[in-house]
Specification:
By secondary structure, the protein is of the alpha/beta class. The protein contains 2 helices and 8 strands; from the N terminus they run βαββββαβββ.
């Protein structure tokens, strides 16, 4: 199973227009305080586990707990550091396509490989990879329950803000509407 961890720090930032930094190949299996994670309810943990590990290259970090019927209560998956995804059995029917989309950073050259792997599982749907209007190349992967994860990689030649149609940005210090 191929897994990666991003190791991008200030020392790697080369400035506007510089080539994007490639992730470093490895998986961080340490237990750390997760600043963000998503939890998805799924109908079948085994099927979803295959989709995310075999199809999308995520690493099975842990399974936890037991439900009353003896089945696993939670599956913890990780891709890169701070790209954690928890799968839990749904308490009832899963409403397909709730509208939530999760996005994860991806390496420049891995989107085609991810698309092929995910397609070969025959478990979900894949669209792309395709360039966006905001300077990325995206792969949209929808699991058997309709949950969508977009893997996004910067284009080889990043457009500058002035080149993006309709781009505006408020860079005022501390500007946060409603905060």
């Amino acid at each position: 199973m191929r897994n990666t961890e991003t190791d991008v720090s200030d020392r790697d930032a080369a400035g506007p227009g510089a080539a994007p930094v490639e992730p470093v190949e490895s998986i961080d299996t340490s237990i750390y305080r997760m600043p963000f994670f998503a939890t998805l309810q799924v109908r079948d943990l085994d099927v979803s586990l295959r989709w995310y590990t075999e199809g999308l290259g995520m690493h099975l970090l842990a399974t936890m707990g037991r439900r009353d019927d003896g089945t696993t209560a939670l599956v913890h998956l990780r891709r890169w550091r701070h790209q954690d995804l928890l799968l839990v059995p749904a308490a009832g029917p899963v409403e397909r396509g709730s509208g939530l989309t999760l996005s994860m950073a991806a390496g420049l050259g891995e989107l085609d490989e991810l698309a092929g792997r995910a397609t070969r599982t025959g478990l979900g749907e894949v669209e792309g990879p395709a360039p966006t209007g905001w300077g990325t190349n995206d792969l949209r992967a929808t699991d058997p329950d309709g949950n969508t994860v977009v893997f996004t990689a910067p284009l080889e030649s990043r457009p500058q803000a002035a080149d993006l149609s309709g781009f505006t940005m408020d860079v005022s210090a501390g500007a946060s509407p409603g905060c």
